[in-house]
Amino acid sequence: MKKFKLSLGWQIFIGLILGIVLGIIFYKNATAITAMQSIGTMFIRLIQMIVIPIVISCLTVGIASIGDIHKLGRIGGKTILYFELMTTIAIVLGLVVGNIFHPGDFINVHSLHGSDITQYLATAKSANHSGIWGTLINLIPVNVFSSISTGDMMPIIVFSVFFGLGTSAVGDKGKIIVDFMESVSQVMFKITGWIMKLSPIGVCALIGVTLAELGLSALAPLSYFVLLTYATMAIFVIVVMGIAARIFGFRIFDLLRVVKEEAILAFSTASSEAALPRNIDKMTKFGVSPSIVSFVIPTGYTFNLDGSAIYQSLAALFLAQAYGIHLSIGQQITLLITLMITSKGMAGVPGASFVVLLATLSTVNIPLSGMTFIAGIDRFIDMARTAVNVIGNSLATVIIGKSENEFDSNKEKEYMAKLK
């Protein structure tokens, strides 16, 4: 008799439901909140522990295997162009939905209770002054070990690209580095498997502490905005991503089946890092060349944030409408351009979506005080936008792989057969 075993996806989903129940039961219970917060933090830190070693090892091996700097430039150009196109579409979609459904018209800002956003204000202020040159300069690490210690992903990626190119350039002498990095990546993926066994517990704790701290009542005054944001993100995944997938010869629903566990994990934890190690491993098994996967996913982790882009544009219009501020077409175009630039400058910053919004509102004269009203429900929206970001990066990996003829259709068929 075959032994029944729940898949990891179902285990995570059960953990999600149990976390909701515990959050409701232990609402405002300080002891339970501390316990759940501690468990959730330990799980996230376990994930963070392996993310950077995986990125460095996989990216170094992947770039070294590409070898040709012209090919790398072509792949990099395609990737950045694709990211920018999808992010722009996401921002425009948020603006269109906001203009059609006017979520801010149903809110009286004077009846809402604000939350403290002091921790984000300094970061947002510095973002306004750094500009495009500051962003480009910050891509280059002064000390890569300092970037590693702070988890600053883009300088780590830049260093790994150069390190991989250098390894390839020295020929046979670099083989020992490639073999070592390949071994490191395999060890890290093995550890990832162990950590993922704890993910249902981590998910349960993180969802539980969110509801225990905020309560379902936090959603009530802003529920229309939350539901509209979720619906917009669903439209983006099914329609926009679906069209992109069709253009390159596959179905978005097939991809969703492949990454459902990573999407649920990202949704539950509101952390892209939680899904990154498994996403790299799964996309490779799905048929995308390791060299493509190791470049596109880490880069997309900081540059391809479709869910965040939708939230930022929709939230900006929501706040403008709530304050009775009419934004002209010109002001909305300014908002679009500002979001396109600022979001790249904030890559890797804690609470990045919230900070980007803070840094953007002043350009169209929306009061920053409005952010205090949506800070309370930001966690609930963060869950959805993180899941969309993960799905978007998975899609980007397959599309870039197919465009470079570095996608193994046989692996894809074998993998999809396993899911049936």
From TrEMBL:
Entry-linked InterPro entries = Na-dicarboxylate_symporter, Na-dicarboxylate_symporter_CS, Na:dicarbo_symporter_sf
The UniProt keyword set, sorted, is: Cell membrane, Membrane, Symport, Transmembrane, Transmembrane helix, Transport
| Primary localization | membrane
UniProt superkingdom: Bacteria
Keyword Transport attributed: yes
Keyword Zinc annotated: no
Query: What PANTHER family does the database record attribute to this sequence?
Result: PROTON/GLUTAMATE-ASPARTATE SYMPORTER, PROTON_GLUTAMATE-ASPARTATE SYMPORTER
| Name of the molecule in the record | Cation:dicarboxylase symporter family transporter
- Give the originating organism: Apilactobacillus apisilvae
The record lists the lineage as: Bacteria, Bacillati, Bacillota, Bacilli, Lactobacillales
